[in-house]
Amino acid sequence: MYSIYHFFEHLVTNKEEFVLKNPLDEFPFDSEMLSCKNRGIFPDLAIKLNTDKNIFSGGELIELKNSKSYNVSSFNSTIPTGKKEIAKIIKGKNSIIKKQMEDAGDDINSLPIRDVYYLIRGRTKENIKVILVHGSFFETIKSADLISQSFGQVLNERLQEKELKIEKNVKDLLMNIFSEQENFSKVRNVDKASVKLRFRIMTEVRTEGNILDTKKYPDILNNTINLIIPCHNEQDEELTAKRFSIVCDISQFQKLKIKHHLNGYFTVFRQDLFQ
Q1: Per-residue pLDDT of the chain in tens (275 residues, 90 and over written 9)
Q2: Are 66 and 20 in contact (CB under 8 A)?
Q3: Residues 6+ away with beta carbon under 8 Å from 58
Q4: What is the pTM of this model?
Q5: Residue 142: which of 267, 268, 263 has the closest Cα?
Q6: DSSP classification of residue 50
Q7: For the chain, what is the largest distance between any 2 Cα atoms, rounded to a whole number of angstroms?
């Protein structure tokens, strides 16, 4: 049986490794619970699926984020989200991720929508924070809305510079067209051009979403390891606590709730790194 809770338990068991200055991808992850491990492509890690998904589905996708400060490092090419369609990650029969997952014994399509987590390590000269956080912490609006509204700002700026006006329905259409990240990941060939063009999206975390920021999120203490999961209602909180207690000795952790400045409450399970 595998899940993000089992993954976190493994991190806690080996938490002394986080104190070392080794890259996160050199952490001794338990390969038995992983269906894939990669470098430079999303996801960095994926947890194996469970046949019985009643309590733990498994299949979570994990991206590693290492920072030499208390700022979450930028997300290159992939906008952070709480869930992803596995079909948008596995493209083509020759997909490396697809082959790894199949070799690990996963029935990939049995869980088409996957939860996404980010394993973040931040450092100052004297302190460390380790955080395994659900991607919804960074996804306060849908990715499509983020992209389209960003392009809307560009469009407004250019219209003002050119002293032009367009109808609202035309503007809305243009913003809707430029709303899917997949459209930017393709290489474009232009007649008579000696180069190819591909746009990449880089996402940077604002202060409100910087889970490492001590002033914004004072309950995420220095020299602690934390699991952070959405808590939208009492049922979410109870289910999260139940799942956690099945895997971990909950008496060894501090359980608390924090409020995201833009996205509601999250449950935190916290332990000292040097405990």
Answers
A1: 899 999 999 999 999 999 998 899 999 999 999 999 998 889 999 999 998 888 899 999 999 999 999 999 988 878 889 999 999 888 777 889 999 999 999 999 999 999 999 999 999 989 999 999 999 999 887 877 777 777 777 778 877 887 777 887 777 777 777 767 666 667 888 888 899 887 777 788 889 999 999 999 999 999 999 999 999 889 999 999 999 999 999 999 999 999 998 889 999 999 999 97
A2: no
A3: 1, 2, 3, 47, 48, 49, 50, 111
A4: 0.90
A5: 263
A6: P
A7: 67
